[in-house]
Amino acid sequence: MTDTAEPQILVVDDARDIREPLGQYLKKQGYRVRLAAGAAEARAVLEEARIALVVLDVMMPGEDGLSLCRALVAKGGPPVILLTAMAEETDRIVGLELGADDYVTKPFNPRELLARIRAVLRRAPPAAPPLPAGRRRFAGWTHDPAARTLRHEDGRKAELTSGESRLLALMLDAPRTVLDRVRLLDLLAGREAKAYDRAIDNQVSRLRRKIEDDPKHPRLIVTEWGGGYMLAADVEALE
Question: In this protein, which residues make up the domain named OmpR/PhoB-type (predicted)?
Fold first, then answer.
């Protein structure tokens, strides 16, 4: 996929009369726009496109917007602006607690939403660089960043999210080196620090469940109290 300078925005709303006019308006403002009628469509778009920001309706059939917001924050995904009903103050509070970057209440003025989009994009870090292409081996595991998989020499296999794979790749770049959260935030160039700091801890926990013999007593990804995390293994490049 060819990348261009204009940020790409994903609008997720089950109401066609909101989704499509908003998409046209944002295109006229110079943004590239993708549309999704629900969470399942949004997930498919996020897997194959570089999205700079998600405008996300809270009330949708099936998986609601808060659930999708929670998943995006946990993966260190793009910033999220929630669209909420004016009366649903609880949804707005929960959304911000989950890590949403802002919210706009319906009915909304497109110019207000545009101003909030621009403000969030201004404070968002640049997009993370592509994952390294080469496979690497450590402690019997082989990491394939292109396929986002881990395979052990004993036959075990683990699928990784894009965030988990990127985090592991950074640790493989600097084995036996403590990577503190501030440095990880800079390298991952993901969400604003407060939200992504929690996401790093969550990703480390998930990685441990996938590769450690005893995740409660990790021996490969170890915690340096007051510092950060360290990959306690030697790394061999395979390609």
Answer: 133-233
Q: Return residue ranges of the chain for CATH 1.10.10.10.
A: 136-237
Query: With contact defined as beta carbons under 8 Å apart, do 186 and 87 qualify?
Result: no
pLDDT of residue 203: 80
167 phi and psi angles, rounded to 5 deg: -65, -45
The Cα–Cα gap between 100 and 145 comes to 28
User: If you compute the radius of gyration of the chain from its CA atoms, what whole number of angstroms results?
Assistant: 19
Looking at per-residue pLDDT, the higher value among 124 and 177 belongs to 177
Write down the CATH number for the domain with range 136-237: 1.10.10.10
Percent helix, percent strand, percent coil in the chain, to nearest 5: 40, 20, 40
Partners of 1 in beta bridges: none
Provide the 8-state DSSP code for 62.
S
Q: How many CB atoms lie within 10 A of CB 73?
A: 22
Q: What is the Cα–Cα distance from 102 to 69, expressed in whole angstroms?
A: 12
Give phi and psi for 39, each to the nearest 5.
-65, -40
| Cis previous bond, 107, omega within 30 | yes
pLDDT confidence of residue 93: 82
DSSP for residue 61:
S
Express each pLDDT in 195-211 by its tens digit.
445 567 778 888 999 99
Q: For residue range 108-118, what is the model confidence (pLDDT) as tens digits?
A: 999 999 999 99
Has residue 25 got a pLDDT over 70?
yes
The CATH class, in words, for 8-123 is alpha beta
> Taking the CB of residue 202, how many other CB atoms lie within 10 A of it?
15
